[in-house]
Amino acid sequence: MERPATSVDVEPPVTVQGAGELATLARILPRLPRGDRTELGPGDDAAVVAAPDGRFVVTTDLMVHGPDFRLAWSTPYDLGWKAAASNLSDVAAMGAAPTALVVALAVPGETPVADLEALADGLREACAAMAPGCGVVGGDLSVSATLTVAVTAFGDLEGRAPVRRDGARAGDVVAVSGALGRSARGLDLLFRLGVDHEGVPDARAAAALRRRDPDIGWHVAPTPPVADGPAAARAGATSMLDLSDGLALDAGRVARASDVVIDLSSSLLGDDPAAALAGGEDHSLFATFPPDVDLPGGFRAVGHVHDRAGGAPRVTVDGSEPGEPGGWDPYRLWSGARG
Amino acid sequence: MERPATSVDVEPPVTVQGAGELATLARILPRLPRGDRTELGPGDDAAVVAAPDGRFVVTTDLMVHGPDFRLAWSTPYDLGWKAAASNLSDVAAMGAAPTALVVALAVPGETPVADLEALADGLREACAAMAPGCGVVGGDLSVSATLTVAVTAFGDLEGRAPVRRDGARAGDVVAVSGALGRSARGLDLLFRLGVDHEGVPDARAAAALRRRDPDIGWHVAPTPPVADGPAAARAGATSMLDLSDGLALDAGRVARASDVVIDLSSSLLGDDPAAALAGGEDHSLFATFPPDVDLPGGFRAVGHVHDRAGGAPRVTVDGSEPGEPGGWDPYRLWSGARG
């Protein structure tokens, strides 16, 4: 049938429900990285991944719409990127090199398939940027009222012992690689300015803000220093941790696990030490090193480890107790019913 | 203050939101099995699991309230059990012995912590029953409007090649281990009788039904023959699959991957061959074996593999095409807004 030259075709987007699981997967799978360690990829009951040193590191993390992100602020590409980044960072924090991810998605039926393609692109590009050779080897796709991304990530220790939280020793240098407080600053801007007149998250306001301030992009799609994890292990790091809940809170975990005092120097925490201490979700790396070590990669000293000398294991700043840092709960002010 | 002797204390249950993440985890973690292959368990950024033959098998699966289960019909213990069972079965279907699970939960804030303890008990007892020595090595806990259970499971191939879907050869015996159609029959009973007068899922009706009919318990907490997966691999199985979508549909996957005809014998499919062909979620094992093999464990012959002789790869029953089996979508009649 001939169509009038003036017609404009506006096709509704193909949704997950409309396309069905198999057709949706057929569009997603080719976009995912195969990975250097993948012996059998997606398509069977399970995948097979190489574990050259006879062990593998594994971590899992859920991102839930509402408590963990808002689609008005994060694009589907951002979601895929951040889901990969936060898990790759946990693998790196053990001193392991990431080898593979599996990704399970639960999405509303009306989600456009194109959104899941973009999410797959974010996963792929995040792996390429932070852990080249890391593959997405399997997954699952379900329908849910609540958009949920579950990533499980694997790593190879390359023959080394895992770097745990409990190995910091008096005399060690405390060091950090990666940003401190940028993600929290970006989120604070979104809460204040990425909303409409009624305080509801607004995609247009967020996009305008993102063009002006790079911390917005850092919050929704951070680039943690993944390669510095294995580098720290090779250099002899005595403890290491992914900074997901803010420096003060996370350093406290290492202090308690290692039964030491961790003293941070405010002069080494950048322009805004309070923000560096409190802000979560940078997924930077915190590590302690013996005093004679040349700090590897992007690590810079931020303090020292001391004996607790009869006191409680704790974090101090310039030798004094800081104010009590609360738990990092970025969306605590947020009602589930909003936006 | 003295209380009158007649007072009855009815404490509201402690919820996840009330207890907070750390206190909730402190109550769950001690209930989980450590596992024989666990080198480092929960508590750090990631866990470490042994992979003795230098590879590991991995599969992931989401269970979402609504599309996959209803709390009126499944107890939290059932949920934990089924989440473990369905993933252990996918590992077994590669011919691997399960070694570990990680479990990520997204739950409404008002969920009682006791429910998560029961879910942990279900995970533990399912591992003990189907895969002794398999541990739960890590996880994540988030708040969500939609109860979601994401399990990732790992297995050890013990030096063997993975048993894939594409290895069935003309002349092979087709065999099955485990129930066929019981889970679907149980779900059908729940849809018809486990509801109140308005058709809404009803816990009391479902509990009464469960006491009368064992297929209800099989649907909400099946016990697939996990040990028969490695046994089939040792016996020389040429292909294998977890039966999650019904025998006809899943056999078709093997037929297409292997480019063969799979002929099933209705006389070998029990009292109700139609139910055996169509019913999903038994998580039984489908496998093909060379003709001279003594079938291991609980496997029994249900048909043969033939050359496709110029025709399409397909499933036949007694030599003829069966009616087209639809995809297994157990809750397809279900509105998300109901119960």
Task: Explain the layout of strands and helices.
2 copies of one chain form a homodimer.
Chain A: H1 16-19, H2 21-28, E1 38-40, E2 47-50, E3 55-64, H3 76-92, E4 97-107, H4 113-130, E5 135-143, E6 148-156, E7 173-177, H5 182-193, H6 203-212, H7 214-220, H8 228-235, E8 239-243, H9 247-258, E9 261-264, H10 273-278, E10 284-289, E11 300-306, E12 314-317
Parallel strand pairs in A: 4-5, 9-12
Antiparallel strand pairs in A: 1-2, 3-6, 4-6, 7-10, 7-11, 8-10, 9-11
Helix pairs in contact in A: 3-4, 5-7, 6-7
Protein name (chains A, B): Thiamine-monophosphate kinase
Keywords (chains A, B): ATP-binding, Kinase, Magnesium, Metal-binding, Nucleotide-binding, Thiamine biosynthesis, Transferase
Binding site for Mg(2+) 1 (chains A, B): 60-61, 140
Written overview of the protein:
Two copies of one chain form a homodimer. Chain A has 339 residues and is of the alpha+beta class. Chain A has two domains: 141 residues, 60s Ribosomal Protein L30, Chain: A (2-Layer Sandwich); 145 residues, Phosphoribosyl-aminoimidazole Synthetase, Chain A, domain 2 (Alpha-Beta Complex). Chain A is built from ten helices and twelve strands. The first copy, chain A, has a six-stranded mixed beta sheet, with helices on both faces. Chain A has a four-stranded mixed beta sheet with strand order 3-6-4-5, covered by helices on one side. In chain A, helix 4 links the parallel strand 4 and strand 5. In chain A, helix 3 runs parallel beside helix 4, helix 5 crosses helix 7 and helix 6 crosses helix 7. At the A-B interface, strand 2, strand 3, strand 4, strand 5 and strand 6 of A face strand 2, strand 3, strand 4, strand 5 and strand 6 of B. Strand 2 of chain A pairs antiparallel with strand 3 of chain B, so a sheet runs across the interface.
